[in-house]
Amino acid sequence: MFCNHCGNQHEANAKFCTKCGASIAQQPQAATPAQYQQPAQPYGQQPLVQQQPYGQQQGQPFYQPNQPRQMSKQTMGLIAAGLVIIVGGLIFYFSGSGGSQSSPKSTVESFMEAVKAKDGKALVKLISDDSLGNPDKDELNDIIDEMEDNFGSGSLKSYKILDTDIDDDTATVDYEVTYSEDGEKQTEEDSFDLVKVEGKWYIDEDMGF
């Protein structure tokens, strides 16, 4: 038999433990040394289990420095949109307002600015070849000289685009001009017919050349 208090072995008819002095007669049952070496688990308590960190698979290290991060579709979409805006802004910056002949209105505005500057070379670039009579290089230079001579003492003060009517590859632009001739200020309304050739708009009028 063994003492329930200290686990000391004693004789079957002993009344007191020879090691700790505890009363053996009052002990309901003998204890084994194993009971003292391994305490019982409290009732209802399960052994603690080491849990995996959140989002970590079994057997996989929680931190993997060499694994590339996956970019979400939303992030890639925002980056793509930003690139489109940047590229579009650069195109707009280097091409001005879309080109001097990208629309009927812009062609007429460029024509008026050339008249204000009395620039014959700029004017002929805005007029269709048919309106100029399909001139060769020498004839074109003569037309430019004639244009600049016709400016005379008059000058264009201001202009206003009143209306634009586009029908496929042709258009009509109504405008108002204020100019000074022989010291007198005058205002007139008129219109230009235009034609679209290879993506550019040209004034398509009989210029009298």
TrEMBL record:
Pfam families: DUF4878, Zn_Ribbon_1. Residues 2-23 form the Zinc-ribbon domain. InterPro entries: DUF4878, NTF2-like_dom_sf, Zinc_ribbon_dom. Residues 97-203 form the DUF4878 domain. This is Zinc-ribbon domain-containing protein. It comes from Cohnella yongneupensis. The keyword Cytoplasm does not apply. Keywords: Membrane, Transmembrane, Transmembrane helix. The chain crosses the membrane at residues 76-96. The keyword Membrane applies. It comes from the Bacteria.
